[in-house]
Amino acid sequence: QLAVRADLEVTVEAPGLPPLPAAVEVAAYRIAQEALTNAARHSGGTRAVVRIVPVAGNIALEVADNGSGNIVARPDGVGLESMRTRAEEIGGSFELRARPGAGTTIAVKLPFDEVTA
After folding, report:
1. What pLDDT is stored for residue 73 in this prediction?
2. Angle 79-89/22-38 helices, nearest 10 degrees?
3. CA–CA separation, 17 vs 42, rounded Å?
4. What's the rounded Cα separation, in Å, for the pair 12 and 1?
5. What is the spatial distance between Cα 14 and Cα 20, in angstroms, rounded to a whole number?
């Protein structure tokens, strides 16, 4: 269960998701959790969508919000770096896409064929 702001509408889409190794499952969960926390705290948006789908031996995870799209570096913040680190620790990738006035998307690819549980 992901705890977020009560007025942030969250939709989860996970069609055809296979069983995942524990390391991939935990990384995906923690990244989605942090991305939703950031959306709730900082975006000013009303909606977020979590999409997780298998793509060519990877899990593609996206968390997109409809907020301001303005990313402000916070000296005391570790959220974005922790998401990047979690993805890279298991051989994945992390991308932040900010669209001022149109929201923010966190896009992560996590390999699951090569990762053992």
Report:
1. 64
2. 160
3. 29
4. 12
5. 13
CA distance linking residue 65 with residue 103, whole number of Å? 5
* CB-based contacts of 115, cutoff 8 Å, min separation 6: 21, 23, 24, 90, 91
**Direct distance between the N- and C-terminal alpha carbons of the chain, in angstroms, rounded to an integer:** 22
Whole-model pTM over 0.70: yes
The residues with which 104 forms a beta bridge, in sequence order, are 98
Phi, psi for residue 110 in degrees, rounded to 5: -125, 120
Q: How many Å apart are CA 14 and CA 16, to the nearest integer?
A: 6
pLDDT of residue 116: 43
Instruction: Extract the tokens encoding 96.
Output: 């932040």
Tokens representing 39 are: 């959306």
**pLDDT of amino acid 8:** 86
Positions of the chain with pLDDT lower than 70, given as ranges: 1-5, 73-77, 114-117
pLDDT of residue 115: 47
User: What per-residue confidence (pLDDT) applies to 32?
Assistant: 95
Q: Residue type at 71?
A: I
